[in-house]
TrEMBL record:
This is Mannose/glucose-specific lectin. Residues 1-15 have a biased composition (Basic residues). The lineage of its organism: Eukaryota, Viridiplantae, Streptophyta, Embryophyta, Tracheophyta. SUPFAM superfamilies: F-box domain, L domain-like, Mannose-binding lectins. Residues 1-38 are annotated as: Disordered. InterPro entries: At1g61320/At1g61330-like, F-box-like_dom_sf, F-box_AtFBL13-like, F-box_dom, Jacalin-like_lectin_dom, Jacalin-like_lectin_dom_plant, Jacalin-like_lectin_dom_sf, LRR_At1g61320_AtMIF1. Keywords: Lectin. GO terms for molecular function: D-glucose binding; D-mannose binding. PROSITE patterns: JACALIN_LECTIN.
Length: 757
């Protein structure tokens, strides 16, 4: 008993000791927490007292401001600190867009808008010159240039360079051979670091001195071989060289140690390109498929990013030259239609993109660090990977098989299966989609081939990437359904539903944007779960492809717990209705990007003629309307480029436009979308397509109505386009719209290259 009593005392003693220790730990933790809060406060006070961002030198702040996208963003930096509010005023970026200036002028001053713009530029420059203020950037977009304006532009440039400008962005419109010739002051600047020229003539100058020039962009400029070579050799600090739609140059030879980036886009007279640049990091060549060109990148052993958008050049590089780039990380090739096999090797390659694979049947890839792979073509070749370590892959395939072959063992699916089997079944997710339907597999098990002729695959590891890809598909497709095949006991389907479901009747995600160019959330009407039996019953009332797809889902996935199906319904963009004196008009669109300046031809009684200037996109458009029985020629909208002209002459009033379709997509990677192609349909004929059918398509048609006006945005290209519709002579269009006979569709993107119209 005594021993047991001692044990109880010892037990109580240990208990009290443990409680004391716990209390001491808690107190210690609290003291540490209090001390941590004090440290954070002291740190915040020290950071606030130092305010390092305000202590940056002026030239560093100016450099930061120069990297921002536009002047408005630079102005917003005033909120960073009190000193930046004053430093901003010393950073001068003079930007003059003639079209934007003209758009802000009232109709009463329309006749003098060109004169007013010139006076505006002169007055603005005079203020800076009279106060002896440095001009960091001088940007001039002048569309109504005439040779009589040359002395005036010379004076502007002379005054700007006298203030030691660092960046010059000069875009001068031209007609025929009437182009602006640059003065010598442009080529003898000690301060210039960036030079972007478009539509000008480079004057032959022997005493070129541009010691600090780092970026040189030339667009739509006629180049002479020896003059261009002299220009490049006189720029010892040049790092970035880009030639876009330039003419005259047949042989491009560049030897420069400081060059890190070279881009050549659609300079279709080029026969040979030779680059000797030991520090070259990025090279991008894009040219016409039928125009041969030889590309040599000798001694470019530092090359990391290579993009070749030309089949013949890609074939030459793949045959015997890729080994010359030992540190190449990203390779983007447009494959020749005749190529049946390809071999790619690179110990540093991390990403490979192959486009236009029509006859390619075999590929050998030796790249131990390859993480990303993308393929676009009509069929899936067999690829032999020496080291398979992909973390994501994208396959965009368009089957040419007959409808009867689909679902009975499609050849395309059999060729894709070996590639999919290389991935870890549990570690990856698969997204398949057609124009109307999306299927998401949480893992790579139990995958079946859906009855689609146009099928895209995306294989990724991260769930965050799934949401990014799904966001893009919802924006471009507006699909009818999203089907999720989850793994067992997974909440993946619920997370997808939570991401899609309507969260707000008036989303604020892109309130800043125009009504017809908002994200998918603004058009989603409803999303709901749908079981297979309900799907099958609904499918019977849908179109043939949807019925086939729903029947396939019922047949393949049993029991119903294997699949979660979401049914999506969408609102068409609401038309803007304008009342006129005698009839109603409807505006549909716009489609395209947000670049350029807005324009609106107005509403007329009909359309007589349409003139398009185009090449790889729609450069400009001009319409001749009918105004109460008389022709009325509207202004041309867009730029001055393009080498093809289409003249559409309607037999008015018996013939009128009832449908317009096209594509929009950026001309240069990373740029704003522009109109790439247009096709017009009247009540008798179809005109086009004109341009390149590439990018995101759009189309509309009207029953019992006609197009009576155009509007949109434009600058150097036709950036966007919209249409004013009105009733045909015998029926009321407005009533048809209200009754639902108006039809507006936007279908899936199409990215393979095609021939121009």
């Amino acid at each position: 008993m005594a021993s047991s009593g001692k044990k109880r005392k010892h037990g109580k003693k240990r208990k009290h000791e443990m409680e004391d220790n716990d209390n001491s730990v808690v107190e210690g933790a609290r003291s540490k927490e209090i001390q941590g809060e004090k440290d954070v406060e002291q740190m915040a006070q020290s950071v606030e007292s130092e305010d390092r961002i305000s202590q940056l030198p002026d030239h560093v702040i100016h450099h930061i401001l120069s990297l921002l996208r536009n002047v408005k963003d630079a102005i917003r930096t005033r909120c960073l600190s009190q000193r930046w509010r004053t430093v901003w005023f010393s950073y001068a970026a003079l930007v003059f867009y003639e079209q934007k200036f003209a758009a802000g002028i009232g109709p009463e001053d329309d006749s003098d808008k060109e004169k007013m713009f010139r006076q505006h530029v002169a007055d603005s420059l005079l203020k800076y010159i009279s106060n002896n203020l440095q001009i960091h950037k001088f940007l001039l977009y002048m569309t109504s240039f005439d040779l009589t304006d040359a002395p005036l532009v010379d004076n502007w440039l002379t005054g700007a360079f006298a203030q030691d400008i660092k960046e010059l962005d000069l875009h001068i419109g031209f007609k025929d051979s009437k182009r602006y010739t640059l003065p010598e002051v442009v080529f003898i600047s000690q301060s210039l670091t960036g030079l972007r020229l478009s539509g000008c003539i480079l004057k032959s100058c022997s005493d070129i001195m541009l010691p600090r020039l780092q970026k040189l962009y030339l667009r739509k400029i006629h180049l002479v071989g020896h003059e261009f070579t002299n220009l490049i050799s006189s720029c010892p600090s040049i790092e970035d060289l880009r030639l876009i739609q330039c003419s005259g140059l047949k042989f491009l030879f560049v030897c420069h140690s400081s060059l890190s980036r070279v881009e050549v886009h659609n300079c279709n007279q080029l026969k040979e390109i030779c680059i000797f640049a030991p520090n070259l990091d990025t090279f991008w060549f894009c040219g016409k498929k039928l125009t041969p060109c030889k590309v040599s990148l000798e001694h470019c052993k530092s090359l990391k990013k290579l993009t070749i958008d030309h089949p013949q050049v890609s074939r030459d590089l793949c045959e015997n030259k890729l080994y010359k780039f030992p540190v190449l990380e990203k390779l983007d090739l447009c494959i020749s239609d005749k190529m049946k096999s390809i071999s790619i090797a690179g110990r540093c390659l991390q990403r490979i993109v192959l486009k236009g694979c029509k006859k390619l049947s075999y590929g050998q890839i030796v790249a131990p660090k390859l993480a990303s792979f993308e393929l676009k073509g009509e069929k899936m070749p067999y690829f032999d990977f020496s080291h398979f370590c992909l973390t994501d892959a994208k396959l965009s395939l368009e089957s040419k098989t007959a409808h009867s072959d689909v679902g009975l063992g499609n050849q395309l699916w059999f060729s894709v299966t070996p590639f999919l089997s290389r991935f870890n079944r549990e570690g990856f997710k698969l997204i398949m989609h057609s124009n109307k339907h999306i299927i998401i597999h949480e893992d790579l098990s139990n995958i079946k081939y859906p009855p689609f002729h146009d099928l895209n695959f995306e294989i990724i590891k991260s769930s965050a990437c799934v949401k990014d890809i799904l966001n893009g598909l919802l924006r471009t497709l507006h699909p009818e359904s999203v089907s999720i095949i989850p793994s067992s006991d997974s909440k993946f389907a619920e997370s997808v539903y939570e991401m899609i479901k309507i969260k707000d009747e008036d989303p604020v995600c892109c309130r800043y944007n125009i009504l017809k160019n908002k994200c998918w959330r603004h058009f989603l009407n409803n999303v709901k779960f749908q079981d297979l039996e309900e799907m099958f019953n609904v499918g019977a009332s849908e179109d043939e492809s949807t019925t086939t797809f729903y029947f396939w889902l019922n047949l393949i996935y049993e029991p119903p717990s294997e699949i979660t199906h979401l049914k999506l319904s969408w609102n068409s963009p609401e038309p803007d209705v304008e009342a006129t004196s005698k009839k109603k008009s409807v505006i549909v669109g716009p489609w395209g990007g947000n670049g350029g300046t807005s324009w609106d031809d107005g509403t007329f009684t009909g359309i007589r003629e349409i003139t398009l200037v185009y090449d790889r996109c729609i450069d400009s458009i001009r319409v001749v309307y009918d105004k109460n029985g008389k022709p009325f020629a509207a202004e041309k909208h867009g730029g001055v480029g393009g080498n093809k002209i289409a003249e559409i002459k309607l037999q008015y009033p018996d013939e009128y436009l009832i449908s317009v379709s096209g594509y929009y997509y950026p001309v240069v990677r990373g740029g704003s979308p522009v109109i790439r192609s247009l096709t017009f349909k009247s009540n008798h004929r179809t005109f086009g397509p004109y341009g390149f059918e590439e990018g995101t398509p759009f189309t509309f048609s009207i029953d019992g109505g006609q197009v009576v006006g155009f509007k949109g945005r434009g600058d150097w290209y036709l950036d966007s386009i919209a249409f004013t519709l009105s009733n045909a002579p015998s029926k009321s269009l407005f009533q048809k719209v209200q009754k639902g006979l108006y039809r507006l569709t936007s279908i899936a993107p199409k990215f393979p290259s095609s021939k121009a119209g």
